[in-house]
Input
Amino acid sequence: MVFLSLSFWREAGGAMNVNYLSVAPELILTVAVVLLLMIDVQWKPGYRWWGIAAALGFAGAIAASVMQWVGHRGEDAAEYFRGMIATDGFSAFAGILIFPIAAMALMTAWPLVRSLGRRGAEFVVLVMIAAAGAHLMAAASNLVMLFIALEVFSISLYVLAGFTRARADADEAALKYFLLGALASAIFLYGIALVFAATGTTSITGIATFLGNELLFRPGILLAGIALLVVGLGFKVSAAPFHVWAPDVYQGAPGGVTGFLAASAKIAGFAAAARVLTVALDARIEDWAPAIGVIAAVSIVVGTLLAIAQTDLKRMLAYSSVAHAGFILTALVGGAAGVADMWFYVATYAVQVVAAFGVAAVVSGPQQGPAPLADYAGLSTRSPGLALALGLMMLAMGGIPLTAGFVGKAAVFSAALDADYLWLVVLALVAAVAGLFFYLRVVVLMYMQPAEGSGSVPVPLGARIVLVVAAVVTVLAGVVPWPLLRWLGEALPG
Amino acid sequence: MIVNQFLVLAALLFSIGIYGVLVRRNAVLVLLSIELMLTAVNINLVAFGQYLQDALVSGQVFALFVITVAAAEVGIGLAIVILIFRNRSSANVDELDLLKW
Amino acid sequence: MVELVLFVVFAAAALFGAVTMVWARNPVYSAMGLMLSMFSVAVFYVSNGAHFIAAVQVIIYAGAVMTLFLFVIMLIGVDKAETRTENLPLQRPAALGLIALFGAGVVVAGRSAWVTGRTVSPGSPIDGSIEEVGGELFNNWLLPFEITALLLIIAAAGAIALAFFRDDEEGDA
Output
């Protein structure tokens, strides 16, 4: 990528090492955002223009991520901008994952965008910036950078959660999300400050070098810092016991937004967690791995048990996402060896959750928060395609063989077994079987109960494309997972 | 001894902030408590930066970023509070009970 | 000695402000309490050589941000006392318990070591002047600085999207 890199030299002699490819996805998205807003203000071309600008932005960002992937996969991280950002297979794959997911989420949300009137432009802009922030979280190689990326990402999501304004429960979801999210950010920040105190640097590779070379006899501050970092990231990925916001937010937020909320938070949160834990704190794995194991176990149990009791599809998916956070954390107890397995689970789960919430947005309405399960009775007669798509996603989330969910669970369990966490794997297996109950309940409801409402459910074009793509990906990754698994072996943080 | 006192003070302020978040019911006051927590972190950052003789001034620059982020966060937070207030004439967190598990 | 006296006086002021903020029934007093804390903290910044940060703290934080808070408090009319009857009787003790736990954690961490690792060479105190901070900000911290631009776009677009009601609103409203 020599042709894209420019170096400026400071008088003092150090290289600024500016590299435009390393921030190309963010640059392209930001340019698209600015063009969208400026042209919208000036000529008011309406939602078609928003769609074009967003499509161009995401296409450019995906192309840039692919270029990063081609140039950097499987290599050690190359750090640019004075060690602020790392370009490696890990960050490139995060881009290849997050931008299509965001584009898919925007497609399912398109009816919502059109119903918002002039405010739709801001909605599209916030989704694009949130995606850029999520990618920056995966690419940040300095804790300061990570914190700012986290805030760019989270603050956009707070606004998106309350975007419909008219419904009181959506505002409530936004406020809960905001207050708990800001609290989590403050805790995360305190953790960064303590780690900075203990190691004297905020650079992720700098921390790794320091911890690798020095033997700390009294690591009190460092351990407290690690604990607070884990709590802060646990909030973002909705791992129990830091999950209390997730059900309320997922249920209250407008249907079109929820899929993006759920999928992008998982991708960005776990990408950041993987880089911080397995690169910066690798030397301290004996300290954090047991804590991660306990959080994983609690998440799996709490998420599964509470999901069984739900009567609302979005709320049930929220608790199921808590359980999935636990499954994904199971891969991380193995440290760096589990990162590829984590990626596989995160990638396939993100696709499933966008599709599942996409169906909820179509059936229960893109503006609506609640999605009572009664709406889904007999869906197979009202709309066979939707029922098939939702059923497939439920089976995949439950971990039925020949779907991506099964391979993902197998992958994270093998990672945990390699790290000698047998108790965790046994617990997770039991919970996975118990979890089948509520996933299959939805399938039974759709196929074996008489329809209450009458008439077919019209499916917008965007949602149709997203559901087909998600179904194909889910089945393909379940039947022939090897190419993806092999690629993911090159998507490790350097 | 030059740095411990600041750490204790920061920890105290942070704890008071957490206490405020947990017990105050007005959303604006919860937000104020979060600001207090961020300030506590800033004391830590500046004091550590001084203690470590950090040539990069990381601590101070980081504190600057934290202040920026906090300002943006406050802007959005107060917008959400005003929105809630328009819809139901109250900003008490306790009364937000439409969503229950 | 002067430093110690300064520390004691302003630490007491900061804590007093913080406790006022948490306990005052009237939200305006709470905001004032936080403002007092912010000013006191600015003194510590100066004593740690962070002159520029101290100025920013006073101008932006204690000035602009707290004024915004006061505006909103007045605007939504919460400048009336909040009742203290608690719907969740366990919440307050639970909060205190958590705080105690956190304090214990801090003490334990402090016993083992306040600051670990990194050997510190005694040198001249770092310079927190505008030149120094600005030089570092635009060299080493250029990218985070640029990213805060995104943050400001979000803050502007988000606040407009949430709280600005146009007359010609279509769709919802």
Remarks:
- Residues 15-488 of chain A form one domain.
- Confidence is low (pLDDT under 50) at residues 1-14 of chain A.
- The beta strands of chain A are 78-80, 85-87.
- Chain A touches chain B at residues 144, 147-148, 151, 155, 158-159, 162, 165-166, 168-169, 171-176, 178-179, 182-183, 185-187, 189-190, 192-194, 196-197, 200-202, 247-248, 251-252, 306, 309-310, 315 (CB under 8 Å).
